[in-house]
Amino acid sequence: MRRSFDDLQLGSIELFCLAAELGGFTAAARVAGVTPAAVSRTVARLEERLGVRLFTRTTRHIRLTDGGHEYFEECRQALAQLVEAERRVTGQQLEALGTLRISLPTTYGHHRVLPLLPSFRARHPGVRVEVHLSNRNIDFIEEGFDLAIRARAQPDSGLIARHLEDAALVVVAAPDYLQRAGLPTRLEHLAEHECVQFELPSSGRPIPWLFHEHGQLREVVTRGGYCCAADVLGGVTLARHGAGLFQAYRFTVQPMLDRGELVEVLQPFAGASRPFTLLYPHARHVPIRVRVFVDFLLAAAQQWRT
Predict the structure, then answer these.
(1) 284: helix, coil or strand?
(2) How far apart are CA 266 and CA 283, in angstroms?
(3) Between vectors from CA 113 to CA 108 and to CA 118, what angle results, nearest 5°?
(4) CB neighbour list of residue 167: distance below 8 Å, 6 or more residues apart
(5) Same structural domain, 75 and 128
(6) End residue of a domain, out of 60, 90, 120
(7) Which of 24, 49, 53, 202 shows a CA-CA span of 20 to 30 A to 136?
(8) Which domain range does residue 26 map to?
(9) 114 and 258 share a domain?
């Protein structure tokens, strides 16, 4: 017998998708404006109707089963088609409005994203852009962020990840430092030099420097009397004033290299990079302000990669 539209229990499917996207009943309840118990009951009724276990549950987490994952993908596509059909039928002209909350790494924000924001708002004046510059991990739901950019982003099933670029790394120093300490020509020479450290926020340990040697990527643990945390630009400033060698993203130091304030060293071992990724939560209806910013930034990233 053919099921009616009411039998499909569209609201139950939407709550199920929300719980799957956000990875929990509590997070789904917060967004939907209901209680976690209501979400749990709704999912249980849906499982009973389907005769399929959709989630495995522990006291702290839920995880889609194989059947749940398959059902989720089908439901997500169907809901997206419903939204698109409604737009086509109504001929609705949608405008990007509201506040866009973005979390950016300090260096990437200053050098890549912030300079683009006036151009973005000229196209979308109805969007207010709220920027938070920080290298720490964030909770999208708890802190209300729409987007984040991170280096070395870890896979997360609750987030959409869009690659922006592989940012080239270079080792630099001030000319006066090289006159005092000599020019390193081999990676082994780093042990004889003052190497400015940058502390990884997630671990509290200095980040190893990356090089290409004999066609292989090589990590080198360096040491020195200076260590910066939270902002890579602190290391650049120290290097520019003669503190020692520092490995930085090329886009942060290229103007100083062009002016002769810094000198690139160990060029035969250059070519290593780190990826930067744009992240935003899975959602049935991605807000227009998010969609237009994602498209805008991806277009800019094409130029960075050339």
Answers:
(1) coil
(2) 46
(3) 155
(4) 108, 151, 249, 250, 251, 273, 274, 275, 276
(5) no
(6) 90
(7) 24
(8) 6-90
(9) yes
Strands 147-151 and 273-281: antiparallel
| Angstrom distance (rounded) from CA 163 to CA 142 | 24
DSSP 223-278: --S-EEES-HHHHHHHHHTTS-BEEEEHHHHHHHHHHTSSEEE-GGG---EEEEEE
- Beta bridge partner(s), residue 132: 103
DSSP 8-class letter at 187: G
In this structure, which amino acid lies at residue 118? Answer: P
Give the Cα separation of 185 and 144 in Å (integer). 48
User: Cα dihedral sign for 83, 88, 91, 94?
Assistant: positive
| Contact in structure between 257 and 192 (CB atoms under 8 Å) | no
Same domain, 252 and 132: yes
Distance CA 35, CA 26 (A): 7
Element (H, E) at 170: strand 159-173
- What's the pLDDT band for 9 if we cut at 50, 70, 90? low
Lowest mean pLDDT among 21-25, 90-94, 156-160: 90-94
Give the tens place of pLDDT for each residue, 250-274: 999 999 999 999 999 999 999 899 9
d(Cα 190, Cα 80) in Å, to the nearest integer?
54
Verify that 130 and 16 share a domain, yes or no: no
- Same domain for 86 and 102? no
pTM of the model: 0.68
Encoding tokens for residue 226?
């200076």
How far apart CA 249 and CA 296 sit, in angstroms, is: 23
Q: How many Cα neighbours within 13 Å face the side chain of 182?
A: 8
d(CA 158, CA 156): 5
